[in-house]
Automatic annotation (TrEMBL):
<keyword id="KW-0437">Light-harvesting polypeptide</keyword>
<keyword id="KW-0076">Bacteriochlorophyll</keyword>
<dbReference type="GO" id="GO:0046872">
    <property type="term" value="F:metal ion binding"/>
</dbReference>
<dbReference type="InterPro" id="IPR000066">
    <property type="entry name" value="Antenna_a/b"/>
</dbReference>
<dbReference type="GO" id="GO:0005886">
    <property type="term" value="C:plasma membrane"/>
</dbReference>
<keyword id="KW-0157">Chromophore</keyword>
<feature type="region of interest" description="Disordered">
    <location>
        <begin position="46"/>
        <end position="65"/>
    </location>
</feature>
<dbReference type="InterPro" id="IPR035889">
    <property type="entry name" value="Light-harvesting_complex"/>
</dbReference>
<keyword id="KW-0148">Chlorophyll</keyword>
<dbReference type="GO" id="GO:0030077">
    <property type="term" value="C:plasma membrane light-harvesting complex"/>
</dbReference>
<keyword id="KW-0472">Membrane</keyword>
<keyword id="KW-0812">Transmembrane</keyword>
<dbReference type="InterPro" id="IPR018332">
    <property type="entry name" value="Antenna_alpha"/>
</dbReference>
<keyword id="KW-1133">Transmembrane helix</keyword>
<keyword id="KW-0479">Metal-binding</keyword>
<feature type="domain" description="Antenna complex alpha/beta subunit">
    <location>
        <begin position="1"/>
        <end position="41"/>
    </location>
</feature>
<feature type="transmembrane region" description="Helical">
    <location>
        <begin position="12"/>
        <end position="32"/>
    </location>
</feature>
Amino acid sequence: MWRMWLLFDPRRALIGLFTFLMVLALLIHFILLSTARFNWLANPTPPAGGAQQTSQLDTPLIQLG
């Protein structure tokens, strides 16, 4: 394994790897933002039959003891 780093410069290899991963992450996020279901910025209408958010504050408090 150590001989591989004799062929490649570690700094350039790691910078290339991090650049590739950042571009891939941005690409995935922009693809998700272009869909109506996964666009968390524009707040589109929720899909029909989705889960409803409930708050625990709506339920009455129970005294113990």
